[in-house]
Write a structure and sequence with these properties.
The complex is a heterodimer.
Chain A: H1 2-29, H2 34-37, H3 44-54, H4 60-72, H5 86-91, H6 94-121, H7 126-140, H8 143-157, H9 173-199, H10 202-209, H11 214-225, H12 227-244, H13 246-252, H14 257-266, H15 270-298, H16 300-304
Chain B: H1 6-24, E1 31-38, H2 53-59, E2 68-70, E3 77-79, E4 82-89, E5 92-97, H3 111-122, E6 138-144, E7 147-152, H4 159-162, E8 188-194, E9 198-203, E10 214-221, H5 225-233, E11 239-240, H6 245-248, E12 254-267, H7 277-286, H8 289-296, E13 301-303, H9 326-338, E14 347-352, H10 359-372, E15 377-382, H11 384-391, E16 402-409, H12 419-423, H13 435-446, H14 449-465, E17 470-481, E18 485-486, E19 503-504
Parallel strand pairs in B: 1-10, 1-11, 14-15, 14-16
Antiparallel strand pairs in B: 2-3, 4-5, 5-7, 6-7, 8-9, 9-10, 11-17, 12-16, 12-17, 13-17, 18-19
The chains are: A mainly alpha, B alpha+beta.
């Protein structure tokens, strides 16, 4: 297991290094930030002074060499837009992102596992059809639309929740619901499918014939055997929540890494783009590690192999 | 000797007592707080960068102030931190500094502080955004304790108007680096910033002018217009900027205001077919500005034929531009084709998507309209950075033939911040190379008063007649206010919102 994890770590770091190199060059291909940060009629001298000040006048290979040297010291440079170290800009957004993702994923699992299991226990019943309809709807509704309609109905019309910001605990409800929307639908279907397959397995039918209750069978035995695909999809969705909660950030002004990265791209804030990709990359690597460990805990065969 | 009766003496004593009580009474103190929902966070909070909308809306007139101020209705220059000014010769100006003014850090405002602020803004290595407003090298020196001399390399008759854009920071501000905690002389001081979330300003007790009514203002950033409007409806905010018309329907406190911004097309004049006047006239005739403004711009613009608004001295009264006439456009297209002009050459419509809400849809409609006249138009959507090489020299001169979408905002009152940039052969955003026009621009730059206005009007009329630029719509803004406060939008609201103009509703 340790050897496997070491190999995973090595390949993940190589992939991260590759992504960092690609991001560095792609970012530079989008043009100099001077055109964005200076007025449209800025003189050539002003543009040159700007590029000189931030090192964009250097040849790209030289900029890259400097970038590599700095990254090895975990120095990503200064954010043009935020006017503070890029690493600080990114790291200050991560706790909110991770907390929001953790809450949303926990609630997603708490909703999807029982719903999917109930649907699998009563295939083609009214419950199954209702749960399937619910999961298809949540997986299909555009999250952007859901967020805005949520604000209009729950905040403007009913006055139950704040529109945005983080003024109180109530401020969490709409962002968490928006973030859960797609994962809860997808995971419910995954749980249903995995449980149906497991519940139809011979050992379950055998146990059923020996008088075990469906409830005990489902939640004690079948669910554990159906866990692998659920863990896989949940891990994938959790990664998406960490690096992709852009809608939540944009609509609810949630200070997450998604919005920081999108702003950095629009503002040609190369240092923040690079720091953001690095930090999100590390977060995804750690998440994958966590998923591997959960795999091993859920299925002893994985530890042995 | 004055004789007073008993009752007269009593009244006199009462009056004296009342007078003393009035004199000893503390100035009215600011109270309450407001929240402003803004679409974008400032890119810089340094005083020398506050010529852009996002920066100026927070800082200008609130935290930092300049020597002069332009009147939002007339564009006339008025005193602010300078009480008077004069020009001893055509290359220098003397400004007398207002006495009794202190910065928020307690530093007194004097000529040395003013010279520091102006020279700091002019430092090319600091790349201040306000620097591009000055066409000639400008330096400030101390003439006496309270008089500063500003010298320009070339004559600048409108320097007092231009200097209204140089907001003065405390002399303790770093000279060679941008500041993230602006310290000025304004009615509000910078109280704190949570990057990505908010900026808070609090009333400055030692302000030299009339004390503001509102004690604290917090600016929050909400990119979505629906959310900004919703914050007013739910009472979470008191002022919300840049609201689309449909979000303001039924709102009693909605205010529309002119932004002084103009959306226009710039034909690439160096290459066929846009080097031909008939072709440019055909394009101008094919654009149905009224429909664009009403339907696609959701009434956030009004059709215009001019690059500047009434506030600017180059505005041509009653001129509305070439009217929409598709048949005429087709006829001009046919005429140019018959004369051998390469009208079939594909024209790239460079559509900058971030000019205003719905800019991309408007560009698509313009593409369709021009194509109806017979042209082949391809649409290229770009953001600001992608737009730059099409817009700015020297790259703009080597691009394929194109129509560039752009917007221009001039609130200086003077045409010198518009016409040289767009029509002069040396203008960074100009694709015009016309010696006669250059001479007219040079003459206008040194003229003053009505001569200057007439010179810019003549230049503008020539540019419109030649379709060197094709103005489409004057842009309008819309803001919402809550029931708790009173604020009246003016000609500068789009770029400056003075918190001292915000009052508690009685």
């Amino acid at each position: 297991m340790l050897k496997f994890l070491s190999l995973r770590l090595t390949t993940s770091l190589i992939a991260l290094a590759g992504v960092m190199v690609i991001v560095f060059f792609l970012a530079r291909l989008t043009g100099s930030p001077a055109t964005l940060y200076l007025p449209a009629d800025a003189s050539v001298e002003m543009m040159e002074a700007f590029n000189r000040q931030f090192g964009y006048d250097q040849p790209i290979p030289q900029q890259f060499a400097q970038f590599v040297g700095n990254v090895l010291r975990l120095d990503f440079g200064q954010s043009l837009y935020q006017q503070r170290p890029a690493a600080v800009a990114v790291l200050s957004a991560m706790p909110q992102t991770i907390l929001l993702a953790a809450v949303a994923m926990a609630l997603t699992l708490l909703a999807a596992i029982p719903l999917g299991t109930v649907a699998a226990l009563h295939p083609h019943s009214v419950q199954d059809r209702l749960i399937t309809l619910f999961s298809l709807l949540t997986a299909s509704i555009p999250d952007f639309w859901f967020a805005l309609v949520g604000v209009l109905v729950l905040s403007v019309n009913l006055g139950l929740l704040p529109t945005s910001g983080q003024a109180s605990l109530l401020s969490w409800i709409l962002p968490v619901a928006t973030l859960m929307l797609h994962p809860v639908g997808v995971l419910t279907q995954v749980v249903r499918g995995a449980m149906l397959e497991t519940l139809n397995a011979g050992y379950v039918q055998n146990a059923r014939a020996r008088g075990y209750s469906w409830k005990r069978l489902a939640f004690r035995h079948a669910l554990r055997n159906a866990a692998l695909p659920i863990i896989t999809v949940a891990g994938d969705r959790a990664g998406g929540m960490v690096n992709g909660a852009v809608i939540v950030s944009a609509v609810f002004a949630w200070p997450g890494i998604g919005q920081v990265l999108v702003d950095a791209v629009y503002n040609r804030d190369f240092a923040v783009i690079q720091a953001g990709v690095f930090v999100v990359g590390i977060a995804v690597i750690l998440l994958n590690f966590l998923v591997d460990l959960i795999y091993a805990a859920a299925d002893p065969r994985i530890r042995i192999s | 000797m004055i004789n007073l009766s008993k009752s007269g003496l009593a009244w006199t004593l009462l009056a004296a007592q009342a007078g003393l009580a009035f004199a000893a009474a503390p100035a009215l103190t600011a109270e309450g707080s407001i929240i402003l929902a803004m679409p974008a966070e400032p890119t810089s909070v340094d005083a020398c960068d506050d010529s852009t909308r996002a920066n100026a809306r927070v800082l200008r007139g609130n935290v930092v102030e300049a020597l002069t101020r332009l009147d939002p209705q007339s564009g006339a220059v008025g005193p602010l931190l300078a009480t008077e000014w004069s020009s001893p010769d055509n290359k220098s100006w003397l400004f007398t500094i207002r006495p009794g003014v202190t910065f928020h850090d307690g530093t007194p405002l004097d000529a040395a502080a003013v010279a520091f602020g102006i020279n700091r803004s002019m430092n090319p290595d600091l790349t201040c955004q306000t620097l591009s407003l000055f066409p000639t090298k400008t330096t400030a020196t101390v003439e006496s304790d309270m008089v500063v001399r500003i010298t320009t390399e070339e004559p600048d008759p409108i320097l007092p108007a231009r200097i209204a854009y140089i907001d003065l920071p405390s002399p303790k501000t770093p000279e060679a680096a941008k500041s993230d905690t602006p310290i000025g002389t304004g009615p509000y001081q910078f109280a704190g910033r949570e990057i990505g979330q908010s900026i808070t300003l609090s009333a400055f007790d030692g302000y030299w002018g009339e004390a503001p009514e509102i004690a604290e203002a917090t600016y929050v950033w909400r990119a979505e217009a629906t959310i900004r409007a919703s914050m007013i409806k739910t009472g979470e905010a008191d002022i919300a900027y840049d609201i689309p018309t449909h979000e303001a329907e039924g709102q009693a406190n909605a205010q529309q205001y002119l932004t002084n911004g103009v959306f226009y097309l710039r034909p690439m004049l160096q290459k066929p077919p846009l080097d031909d006047l008939r072709v440019r006239q055909a394009i101008a005739s094919s654009i149905d500005k009224a429909t664009l403004a009403e339907v696609l711009m959701d009434n956030s613009g009004t059709p215009t034929g001019q690059l500047v608004t009434q506030l600017i001295n180059g505005y041509v009264p009653d001129y509305t531009g070439m009217p929409y006439d598709l048949e005429k456009a087709k006829a001009l297209f046919a005429e140019a084709k018959a004369a051998g002009v390469a009208v079939d050459t594909p024209i790239t419509l460079v559509a900058r998507t971030d000019l205003f809400s719905g800019a991309e849809e408007v560009s698509q409609a313009i593409q369709q309209m021009i194509q109806q006249a017979g042209f082949t138009v391809t649409l290229k959507s770009v953001d600001t950075v992608g737009w730059s090489p099409w817009a700015r020299k020297p790259d703009s001169l080597t691009q394929p033939v194109n129509l560039l979408t752009s917007s221009h905002n001039n609130i200086s009152g003077d045409g010198s911040l518009t016409f040289p940039n767009f029509l002069g052969s040396g203008g960074r955003l100009s694709v015009v190379d016309n010696a006669e026009l250059d001479a007219k621009l040079a003459a206008a730059a040194t003229a003053s008063g009505e001569d200057r206005a007439a010179a810019y009007r003549e230049i503008a009329q020539y540019a419109y007649d030649q379709e060197l630029v094709i103005p489409v719509a004057a842009l309008q803004g819309l803001l919402l206010t809550s029931d708790r406060i009173a604020y009246e939008a003016d000609g500068f609201t789009d770029i400056e919102l003075h918190l001292s103009d915000v009052k508690h509703k009685q």
